[in-house]
Amino acid sequence: MNDILPIILAILAALVVIGGLIPVLLKTRRNITKYPGTRDANDPVEPVRGAGGTLVEESPSVSPERRAPGGVDLEGLETAEVPDDAAGLETIAVETPLPVAGRLTRLRERLVRSNNIFGKGLLALLSSDKIDEDVWDEVEETLLLADLGTESTMQLVDALRERVKVLGTRTPEQVKALLREELIKLVDPTMDRSLRTERHADKPSVMMVVGVNGVGKTTTVGKLARVLVAEDKDVLLGAADTFRAAAAEQLATWGQRVGVPTVKSDVDGADPASVAYEAVKAGIDQEVDVVMIDTAGRLQNKVGLMDELGKVKRVIEKLAEVDEVLLVLDATTGQNGLNQARVFSEVVNITGIVLTKLDGTAKGGIVVAIQKTLGVPVKLIGLGEGADDLAPFDAESFVDALLN
After folding, report:
1. What b-and-e string marks burial along 336-366, b requiring 16 or more CB atoms within 10 Å of the CB?
2. pLDDT, tens digit, 9 for 90 and up, residues 96-107
3. pTM (2 decimals)?
4. Which of 251, 263, 327, 338 has the smallest CB count inside 10 Å?
5. What is the CATH number of domain 10-76+197-350?
6. Which residues pair with 237 in a beta bridge?
């Protein structure tokens, strides 16, 4: 018995030591498995505040090789999966946006699927053995239902009447070819649809994005930031929509996803012009290529709209020229969207249209109607909810998608 007692005591002592080491080992394992680029909720964060109480938010830095403003690496990054034991960590993984070419291909395919009723309906009507007045009435109705607009519809129908009369006997291929030619004329491939995003000698290119709430304006700013990052541009976002709850946080999240900083106010209901000014100032100081300003859309009347947007633009121009004013419109709103376009065009000098929510609708004619109403080109189209579902507009590709 006396021989066994020391052995039992030794075993108990070993168990006590092992029990004390287990929490330390587990904590060490958690620290090792935490995925790269994250930080714990208790890690210190040093935000950069500009004058006027603005806050520059940026993603966690990950590599010193090539840094965008704020020290964020934009190359070779993919969306990281968060391990189970990293729950509660305050981070947004930096994503790699799709190349512009790949995005265009995917959007064309989606447009073909969503708009083929429009194209196939016209082709079927114009391929009829006999095209009488009833058929022309159906062609006209199809075009009007596609939101082409009355003036453009009559222009297209008159052109088609003349060409069909000259052709006489028509094959489906001939009908498709003449319809394609006339639609391309209406969409107008001669319009300059390029975005003015080239940095000036000592200042960034400045872009204002305007539009009413609900059209996907803030989301469009975030998606366009992805497009520009994919083109290897350094971008800074300005959250000048200070009236809509969580608009600034939403924009900052988009910025973090692609590694670009966001200038936003830390005071609810702050002056939008002040935020815009600070964003442009930060863009100049950090030598970025493009500063994008998201503006408020909750404006109750034309006078309020004119005062607010006019002030924002004037304040920005104290520092730098506004190169682009993009108007975001919802493709599904039809005539209401055209009315919005008219009002905004009277308030600020619109340089281009971003047409969102063009997926799931056969109303592709809205492109023609808006361009004819404003005299400015559709420069970008959005065809879905995905982060990369925004691409430059191309007239011929658009018409081809409508007719396939």
Report:
1. ebbebbeebbebbebbbbbbbbbbebbbbbb
2. 666 666 666 666
3. 0.74
4. 338
5. 3.40.50.300
6. 262, 292
